[in-house]
Amino acid sequence: MSTLVFVEHQGDQLSKGSLGVLAKAAELGDSVDAVMVGGTEVKALASEVGRYGAATVYVAEDDALSPPLPQPRVDVVAKVVGDAGHDTVLFSTSVLAADVAGGVAARLDAGLNWDLVDIVRNDDTLVGKRLALADSLMVEVGWRSEPRLALFRPGSFEPVERGGQPQVLTVSVELEDHSRAARLVDQVVQPESGPSLESAEVIVTGGMGLGGPEHLSLAEELAGVLGGVVGATRAVVYAGWSPHSTQVGQTGKTVSPKLYVALGVSGAVQHKVGMQGSQTIVAVNKDPRAPIFEFCDLAVVGDVHTIVPQLVELLRGRKGS
Amino acid sequence: MKVVACVKCVPEGRARLDPRSRRLDRDGAGEINAFDRYAVEEAIRIKEASESEVVVVSMGPDPMAEALRSALALGADRAVLVSDPGAVGSDLIATSRVLAKVLERENPDVVLFGQQTSDGAGAVLWAAVADRVRLPAISQTTKLEIADGAVRATRQTEVGDDVIEAPLPVIVAVTDAINELRYATLKGKMAAKKKPLDVLTLSDLGLDPSTAGDAGSKTEVLGIGDPPARANALRVEDDEAAAQVIVDFLTERQLV
Question: Model ipTM?
Answer without folding.
Answer: 0.89
